[in-house]
Amino acid sequence: MMSAPTTRRALPADLPEAWAGAATWTGVAGGVQPWRVEPAQLERIVSPAVEELARIPNGVRLAVETDASRLELALTTEDSHKDAARRVDLVVDGKHVASVEAASRTELDLDLPGSRARVELWLPHTAPTVLHQALLHEASVLVPAPPRGPRWTVHGSSITQCNEADSPLGTWPALVAAQNDYELTALGMSGQCHLDPPLAETVGRSRPDLVTLCLGANIYGAATFTERSLLPAMIGFVDHVRRLTPAPIVLMSTITSGPHREDVPNAAGLTQRRLRELLHHGAELLRREDPLITLIDGSEIIAAQEMHLLGDLLHPTPEGYRVMAERLAPRLARALADASDTSPGAA
Length: 347
Known about the structure:
Layout: E1 6-9, E2 19-20, E3 24-28, E4 31-35, H1 39-45, H2 48-54, E5 61-66, E6 70-77, E7 87-92, E8 95-101, E9 105-111, E10 117-122, E11 129-139, E12 142-144, E13 151-156, H3 158-161, H4 172-180, E14 183-188, H5 197-205, E15 210-215, H6 217-221, H7 230-244, E16 249-253, H8 259-262, H9 272-287, E17 293-296, H10 318-342
Parallel strand pairs: 13-14, 13-15, 15-16, 16-17
Antiparallel strand pairs: 1-11, 2-5, 3-4, 5-10, 5-12, 6-9, 6-11, 7-8, 7-10
């Protein structure tokens, strides 16, 4: 028997299974804070920059089935990236129906169909965010939406976090997830993708059916490793993920950047071109023992002749992210399908 329409709360404490993309939530004054990396893991990284990034709900979303007529939302965002858009996106039955600014303290009233539908609310992808309230009005039905498909976890740099995207649904991971019907966990870490073991732990604990590791951009920029130290660190990171999950792992080297990175040695003596070669060699070493590892050459995703897709010769424009998604979606689908074909249970 259907219950009478009423106002229902949809905070993580009320409907934990309806919220995806966060490793955990903690209570703060007046609300709850999503974390993409658990605070206990952050303590082992000892980086204020990574802690701030972990509080950015990139890919964090509410997904419910409801016949509510209205969604009332209250949240607060921090102004951490002044040039980046701070928006929430609303999706109804797979259609992107609204993208609304969410600067500082924001209270939103979003119309819903009033008949049973799948409703997704994506939190800002660029700024630490505290969620104060989420109410579904005139709802006789409110249940967590079933997963869209396989769980996909992607880790990388700012090129994966996608601050230049117009809204949460404009990041290339969100676009791939929509195209391939994946349940996304987005672990893009702007400036902070340095093969930290606690991040490998976070990736492995996310219960993925598919993992993508986009490596190289920050390692070049910060000169994190030398030619001697890079491959052992990369192989150790992948081995750490593998110990925690049997999922296929796709390793992707960084997309092509301008010649100021491709051809100029960093402080560790590596050009980005050489760093990419080393990562490819490491992937081949791993593949000798692990057939569920796949390599994607990032220079094939954004090529040298496509610098118009990079606003600053490093970070893609919104159109650049769309191009990345168009090229990566079929490759990732193929990697998952191939892994199914080679699994012990395959015919």
